[in-house]
Write a structure and sequence with these properties.
The structure holds two protein chains of two kinds. By secondary structure, chain A is an all-beta fold. In chain A, 0% of the residues lie in helices and 49% in strands. In chain A, strands 2, 4, 5, 6, 9, 10 and 11 form a seven-stranded mixed β-sheet that branches. In chain A, strands 1-3-8-7 form a four-stranded antiparallel β-sheet, with no helix packed on it. The chains are: A mainly beta, B mainly beta. Chains A and B meet through strand 4, strand 5, strand 9 and strand 10 of A and strand 4, strand 5, strand 9 and strand 10 of B.
Chain lengths: 114, 111
């Protein structure tokens, strides 16, 4: 089945620790995105990538880092510089070069600082 | 900068009622508009995608319209059911293929 897989579903981080969230897609989509969702709020863009080995900062990139070494994968690292990382993180992908630009989302990773 | 607003923030209706959710955006230079459903603790499920050249899309009991010039979209749900209870999110895609989201409408359909 084609889709986007995020792992893990739940993640716990200690103070001062870096953690990495995984996002893999087998849809052959060009663009991939990371969003953060806080309770009662909409989604805010962290980083996005439209091509391998290239990525752009979104609205709230501070304290986060990404890489895009393969078309299928777009991992997000939450660094110790992110002071309030507890949130729900969602990964999405879009096919850029075809007429249908529908966005597809993974099931999310809930990150909690302990 | 694109801003997306959804009204109302929450809505509670009895089963069987027809309802309308509203979405407005400030920059009409959009590539498309997409409506999503989100269940608690879950990811987003795409409901309807309207390209900028289209006026509406329909899927089952759902109908979404787009008036790009006025910066508005509506999602119409016919004959609502308790299973429709969820948060509904509107997102517009700009020329850079970034999605900008509204804060959502939390819908509760009472049996």
């Amino acid at each position: 089945d084609g889709g986007i897989t995020q792992s893990p579903k739940y993640l716990f981080r200690k103070e001062g620790q870096n953690v990495t969230l995984s996002c893999e897609q087998n849809l052959n989509h060009d663009a991939m995105y990371w969003y953060r969702q806080d309770p009662g709020q909409g989604l805010r863009l962290i980083y996005y990538s439209q091509i391998v080995n290239d990525f752009q900062k979104g609205d709230i990139a501070e304290g986060y880092s990404v890489s895009r070494e393969k078309k299928e994968s777009f991992p997000l690292t939450v660094t110790s510089a992110q002071k309030n990382p507890t949130a729900f993180y969602l990964c999405a992908s879009i096919a850029l070069l075809r007429g249908n630009t529908e966005a597809f989302f993974g099931q999310g990773t809930r990150l909690t600082v302990v | 900068k694109q801003e997306v607003t959804q009204i109302p923030a929450a809505l509670s209706v009895p089963e069987g009622e027809n309802l309308v959710l509203n979405c407005s955006f400030t920059d009409s230079a959009i590539y498309n508009l997409q409506w999503f459903r989100q269940d608690p603790g879950k990811g987003l499920t795409s409901l309807l995608l309207i390209q900028s050249s289209q006026r509406e899309q329909t899927s089952g009991r759902l109908n979404a319209s787009l008036d790009k010039s006025s910066g508005r979209s509506t999602l119409y749900i016919a004959a609502s059911q308790p299973g429709d209870s969820a948060t509904y999110l509107c997102a517009v895609t700009g020329s850079a293929r970034q999605l900008t989201f509204g804060s959502g409408t939390q819908l509760t359909v009472l049996p």
